[in-house]
Automatic annotation (TrEMBL):
<keyword id="KW-1133">Transmembrane helix</keyword>
<keyword id="KW-0106">Calcium</keyword>
<keyword id="KW-0256">Endoplasmic reticulum</keyword>
<dbReference type="InterPro" id="IPR000008">
    <property type="entry name" value="C2_dom"/>
</dbReference>
<protein>
    <submittedName>
        <fullName>ESYT2 protein</fullName>
    </submittedName>
</protein>
<dbReference type="GO" id="GO:0006869">
    <property type="term" value="P:lipid transport"/>
</dbReference>
<keyword id="KW-0813">Transport</keyword>
<dbReference type="GO" id="GO:0031210">
    <property type="term" value="F:phosphatidylcholine binding"/>
</dbReference>
<keyword id="KW-0446">Lipid-binding</keyword>
<dbReference type="GO" id="GO:0061817">
    <property type="term" value="P:endoplasmic reticulum-plasma membrane tethering"/>
</dbReference>
<feature type="domain" description="C2">
    <location>
        <begin position="75"/>
        <end position="195"/>
    </location>
</feature>
<keyword id="KW-1003">Cell membrane</keyword>
<dbReference type="Pfam" id="PF17047">
    <property type="entry name" value="SMP_LBD"/>
</dbReference>
<dbReference type="GO" id="GO:0005544">
    <property type="term" value="F:calcium-dependent phospholipid binding"/>
</dbReference>
<keyword id="KW-0677">Repeat</keyword>
<keyword id="KW-0812">Transmembrane</keyword>
<dbReference type="InterPro" id="IPR039010">
    <property type="entry name" value="Synaptotagmin_SMP"/>
</dbReference>
Amino acid sequence: QIHGTMRVILEPLIGDMPLIGALSLFFLRKPLLEINWTGLTNLLDVPGLNGLSDTIILDIISNYLVLPNRITVPLVSEVQIAQLRFPIPKGVLRIHFIEAQDLEGKDTYLKGIVKGKSDPYGIIRVGNQIFQSKVIKENLNPKWNEVYEALVYEHPGQELEIELFDEDPDKDDFLGSLMIDLIEVEKERLLDEWFTLDEVSKGKLHLKLEWLTLMPTADNLDKVLTSIRADKDQANDGLSSALLILYLDSARNLPVSYVLMGTLLS
């Protein structure tokens, strides 16, 4: 079973039958997957292999069906399929992953008698785009001060998903999560708030979220570059000033590569 939110887009509208030029479908975020391997090979019952197979299948689904990936089926021959399959993003979300407060202490000592701190880090998702913050050792009030930029293709519908974890040698402990509707961010253009973490008893996360609109010309480029120079220390690889979209359509007359197979004799 697959559980998720799938969007189906019927466009463009045309004047003749079938009235719709193409059909596009995709998941707004990575779906949940439930597989019952009963009756299949016993190999999949080996501890670790079952979860591994589910992860591989989910990755395949994401590579084809989670935004920005999509399946587009043309219904008439005149449709420009490339424009539907690779649309221009609606905007760019700049995520300032700043700090957290009052996180749960997950590390324990003396067989659980003494409660310690945590080594928190964050996983940030927008569709199929995933970012992971650095780990702050032994701190329940960590400061990351990291910046990420994600392309937003569909709104309403797409959300910013954040999960916090405590890094451990075996399995990382859950420290809370957030789900933020990007419609609110686009409306406000800038949000700088403390958010209460969900699914845990305590903890807050400080985020600054910026909605950046794509402009068709470079008229405001100098202004954007000036602003970025003032904030250049906020991101490890620098902040973006423009977006280049490259669509690789096809190739012809490529050279043929040969692989020689041989037998080694001892």
